[in-house]
Amino acid sequence: MTRSLKGSRVLVLGGTSGIGLATAQAAATQGAKVTVASRSGDKVKAAVAKVGSGATGEPLDTTNDAALEAFFSSHPEWDHIVVSVAAGRSAGIHDMTVQEAYGKLAKITPEGSLTLVSGYLSQRPNKDALLQGCINAALESLGRGLALALSPVRVNTISPGLIDTPIRASMPADKKEAMLERAAAALPARRVGQAEDVAEAILMVMTNPFTTGSTIFIDGGGMIA
Ligand SMILES: NC(=O)c1ccc[n+]([C@@H]2O[C@H](COP(=O)([O-])OP(=O)(O)OC[C@H]3O[C@@H](n4cnc5c(N)ncnc54)[C@H](OP(=O)(O)O)[C@@H]3O)[C@@H](O)[C@H]2O)c1
């Protein structure tokens, strides 16, 4: 059993932006062989260049079951898989079945791990984002269930609070800044999160051999504010 990522094959789905990209970069820094995947070929190309260290990338839409199946069957076992795919506002229940599919399709080495990224709306509902809260809660439950079903592969969920990533790229810049400032002032940590804050927690659960079935909140105290 090794705590090191050196030489490990790490797949980051949604690894071309925000939390996924920061995770890919952090894993590569620790010597992992990183592959990133997301829908946009351009984003994949840019992310591979940013991650460096021999990283590879492939376009993949995780809502396309056939593409997902073809992807996993064309690759050998992974040591660690991280799912940091932004489902977006229009996310439907379909996404949950796709997340479930990782448990069935993905080949992970027995000493490896699967890490899901949910969000603290699972525990701290927002009346304007009820469905996202439900999806996050389902992901956290799925993570615990998969930890039993895929044992000895370890499965954990990281549940971020408000993180400043390109997920809000469509918001006007001034509105976004004002919203982030208000949020920071209301949080016990007095700041909003950065993608790197979440990536650090993802790497911890990937490499700690006694961590499985856990949900870890990286939310600046959002749950208690
Ligand atoms: N940022 C926050 O405040 C926050 C808070 C709580 C939870 N989260 C969760 O954290 C995760 C990552 O969010 P983020 O902030 O890092 O978002 P982001 O910067 O927008 O990154 C999302 C990534 O997902 C990829 N993606 C989206 N749909 C996809 C699909 N169908 N198939 C494959 N890849 C897809 C995107 O690339 P393409 O466009 O190329 O597909 C991108 O690489 C999400 O699950 C989000 O809900 C974020």
Report on the architecture of this protein:
The chain is an alpha/beta fold. The chain has seven helices and seven strands; from the N terminus they run βαβαβαβαβαβααβ. The protein has a seven-stranded parallel sheet, with helices on both faces. The longest helix has 20 residues. The chain is globular. The protein binds NADP nicotinamide-adenine-dinucleotide phosphate (NAP).
Fold topology:
Layout: E1 9-13, H1 18-29, E2 33-38, H2 41-51, E3 56-59, H3 65-73, E4 78-83, H4 94-105, E5 108-117, H5 130-149, E6 154-160, H6 173-186, H7 195-207, E7 215-218
Parallel strand pairs: 1-2, 1-4, 2-3, 4-5, 5-6, 6-7
The structure holds NADP nicotinamide-adenine-dinucleotide phosphate.
Residues 13-14, 16-20, 38-40, 43, 60-63, 84-86, 117, 119, 160, 162-163, 165-167 line the site of NADP nicotinamide-adenine-dinucleotide phosphate.
* Weakly predicted, low-confidence segments: 88-94
Question: Any idea what the shape is?
Answer: globular
Biggest sheet: strands side by side, in what order? Answer: 3-2-1-4-5-6-7
Give the H and E element order.
Answer: EHEHEHEHEHEHHE
Distinct bound molecules: NADP nicotinamide-adenine-dinucleotide phosphate
* Number of distinct helices: 7
Helices and strands: which structural class?
alpha/beta
pLDDT average, as an integer? Answer: 93
Q: Report the span from N to C terminus.
A: 39 Å
The total count of strands amounts to: 7
Q: What is the makeup of the main sheet?
A: 7 strands, parallel
The amount of helix comes to 40-55%
- Radius of gyration, rounded? 17 Å
